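Structure Section — protein described below
Tokens — whole-number codes for backbone shape
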Amino acid sequence: MQAPFPVRVGPPSSIPRDSFVKVRGLPPMAALSEGHTISPGSWAIALNALPNLKILVPAGVTGSADIVVSLVGLDGSVLAEAKSTLVVRSTAASAPKAPPERRDPGLTPQDRQRAQGFVTKGEELMAAGNVEAARLFYERAADLGLARGALALAATFDPDWLERRQVVGGLRPDPAAAKRWYERARELGADEAEEPLRRLLTARQP
């Protein structure tokens, strides 16, 4: 399914030339209709593509994610930044309404801040092509109990994600590792891990 993904930057006269928008924190299985991925859950989008920007999420995926939208200069400096929460819900009329599950159960505010810092560092390393180091930071975030860290780590092993995104050359898919970390993300409250888990299990059947 797809839905509008509105991002507004302005006024136009104040925006430096050749700047672009960076979105971080998207679920690994989500994609944007414009721009390109630079690491799991992180996308770069040209300013002129923002009016038509949409998010694409596999059917059946639900959950929420904390996202960060940044205006980035040509030299890589962050010119402005905003945070929001992306919520994906089923549109089926028969779907029962239920309160959202608590994500990252048991995670203290201090540990959450540390874990989010690890994920941010992991994204920076992924963008630089240092996959193995990025995985270490994602794992540290997951070990602290952050679902987003487990999701990002799982995606770096997911054959389907790697084939569709083609983020960095030399990445070796590992379905068993992807399954293990998607399961960990699910334990931490990430409902969006269900769809890739089903896909991996189906792909392994003879």
About this structure: Residues 32 and 55 are 5 Å apart (CA to CA).
